[in-house]
Amino acid sequence: MGSDRHPSPSRYRIEAAAFVYEIVLVADALKEAHTFDHDTALHFGRRWQLLRAIERCGGAPTFTDLGRLLGMSRQAARELAIKEAETGVIEIFPAHDDRRAWQVMLTPIGRRALAAQRVPNATWLFTLLNGLDPAAMRMIQHVLRVIRLRLERYERELSRAAARR
Predict the structure, then answer these.
(1) Residue 70 near residue 77 (C-beta atoms within 8 A)
(2) 72 lies in which domain range?
(3) Which end of the chain is more exposed for a tag (fewer CB within 10 A), N or C?
(4) Is 121 inside any structural domain?
(5) pLDDT in tens, 94-143
(6) Are residues 53 and 34 in the same domain?
(7) Do 17 and 79 share a structural domain?
(8) What residue ranges in 57-120 does DSSP mark as E strands?
(9) Is residue 124 part of a domain?
(10) Quick one: pLDDT at residue 3?
(11) Does 82 lie in the same domain as 54?
(12) Which residues pair with 91 in a beta bridge?
């Protein structure tokens, strides 16, 4: 018989599954959350995915690179990039080494927009987290980071294994 500290394997599996599903439910709720003035509380839409993907590249990705990062076709990434270039958040230009390829980069407006979207509305944030101890938040953040990094590593390993086949 297991204790809370060392549960039986079946009890651990039940607790672990409940924990993971709670993370999923919270993530879904955060994606749909709105501030008190009905604005989107956090930004997960295609525009923000595109800007974060460009930022993660650390340079000027091609449409093909963006498609791979965003899990979409090169053509869909191209269309999204053109749409966002029209708003001024990114710039599209021919690649220096291959004039047939096009690259994208964040503009100063895009960098400012990306920085601003990372800072949620203070009133909404403080109301949401009211009463939660900062030490507990740091511990949970650590746990979530470990889970995310393990998931990312697992996906990379799966991709490498698939590429070897």
Answers:
(1) yes
(2) 46-116
(3) C
(4) no
(5) 988 887 889 999 999 999 999 988 888 899 999 999 999 999 999 999 99
(6) no
(7) no
(8) 90-94, 102-106
(9) no
(10) 64
(11) yes
(12) 105
Q: Considering only CA atoms, which of 47, 44, 39 is closest in space to residue 109? A: 47
Residue 108: which CATH number?
A: 1.10.10.10
Q: What is the pLDDT of residues 47-66, one digit of tens each?
A: 999 999 999 888 799 999 99
Three-state DSSP state, 54: helix
Residue owning tokens 């053109």: 82
pTM for this one?
0.68
Q: Is residue 32 part of a domain?
A: yes
Q: Going by C-beta distance under 8 Å and a sequence separation of 6 or more, which residues neighbour residue 105?
A: 54, 59, 60, 90, 91, 93
Q: How many domains does the structure of the chain reveal?
A: 3
* Residue 104 dihedral angles phi and psi, to the nearest 5°: -130, 150
Q: pLDDT at residue 83 above 80?
A: yes
Helices (H), 33-133: 46-57, 63-70, 74-87, 108-117, 122-129
Nearby residues of 122 by Cβ (< 8 Å), 6 or more positions away: none
**What gap in Å lies between CA 3 and CA 10, rounded to an integer?**
12
Query: Which residues pair with residue 93 across a beta bridge?
Result: 103
Shared domain check, 83 and 109 = yes
110 and 139 share a domain?
Answer: no
